Amino acid sequence: MTEPWLSVVMPVHAGERWIGATLASLASQADAGVEILVIDSSPTGATRAIAEDYADRLSLKIVTRTDLPGWPAKTNYGVEIARAAHVCWLHQDDLWLPGRAAAVRGWIAEAPDAALHLSASAIVDGAGRVQGIWRCPFTADGVIAPERLIERLLVQNFIAAPAPVYRKDAWLACGGLDAPLWYTADWDVWLKLAEQGEVRHHLGATTGFRVHGTSQTVLGSRDARDFAEQMQIVLDRHIPRLSRRNRAVRRASQASIAVNSALAAAVAGSFSGVLPAILKVLALGPAGIHRYVRDSRIVDRALPRLRAKLAGAF
Fold first, then answer.
1. Residue 225, pLDDT score
2. What is the domain extent for residue 198?
3. Who contacts 271 (Cβ-Cβ below 8 Å, separation ≥6)?
4. pLDDT tens digit sequence for 12-71
5. What's the pLDDT score for residue 216?
6. With contact defined as beta carbons under 8 Å apart, do 100 and 185 qualify?
7. pTM of the full predicted structure?
8. Same domain, 205 and 222
């Protein structure tokens, strides 16, 4: 196998429903320089069997690690064994869109020393249909100033997990994913990577983030208190890094946490938190509401999920 220029880490668990489509989206890129690392903790061999069908089309390595129960631990392990200098990850239900490999190769060629590359992601439903685009709150390609990124990212994690590409050494230097954060480990690591070097933003979506009713996020968010605490931990951990607008960002972030928690509870059938969350957003005032809507990407995130539900493919 030639030395890869990119490693794709795939933490999987009982992924037989989705992993075939995910690996097919990688195989369609036909790039032998992309290394695929499947870290599998499944209780049966069904997921591995599907993955093995792609061994002749991908530079594929499958590692069974039933001792690593959560996706953060499996992802950290995958990054550790990655052979490429640049890494991204792809969950078992997400996708690469056509042209992803070529686009990422261009990003790296343009800025090989950047710690983190960001981009939008399409939101796809359970049937694989694109229902919307989840964008970062930046309107141009280029370097994002650290303070600007942190200020906006603390309001809400606006980065879809399959989209970013990062330097392996930067990931290792910042400690990777915090395993106890089952919901917000990715949000936390983007903020940590922003301390490791330059961050670049790229327009256009090259990945598909799948929304469906059996995702870990949907199932885990049924514990409303733990769900809110996951977000609060990240806010409290990183907001001291802001040198200005600390109070305004915290208020917008608290409103975002209230909205996210209310929406998660509503999915589970409880609507008691919806009105208090709306009032918390309204209390921000015009400038604060603008900040919340811009940085939370609430429209980008919510409307595609609604379309998926109405289409019966959530």
1. 84
2. 6-210
3. 262, 265
4. 999 999 999 999 999 999 899 999 999 999 999 999 999 999 999 999 999 999 999 899
5. 59
6. no
7. 0.94
8. no
Secondary structure (DSSP) of 264-310 = HHHHTT--TTHHHHHHHHHTTHHHHHHHHHHHH-HHHHHHHHHHHHH
Q: What proportion of the chain, given as a percentage, has pLDDT over 70?
A: 97
**How many CB atoms lie under 10 A from the CB of residue 181?**
20
Query: Which residues, in sequence order, are CB contacts of 233 under 8 Å at separation 6+?
Result: 181, 184, 188
138 and 251 fall within a common domain: no
Domain assignment present for 112: yes
Residue 200 within a domain: yes
**Ranges assigned E (strand) in 125-198:** 130-134, 142-144, 165-167
| pLDDT at residue 266 in the model | 85
In a shared domain, residues 301 and 237: yes
Q: Is residue 306 part of a domain?
A: yes
Q: Provide the 8-state DSSP code for 175.
A: T
Give residue 223's pLDDT.
73
Domain count within the chain: 2
Q: Where does a domain end: 210, 245, 273?
A: 210
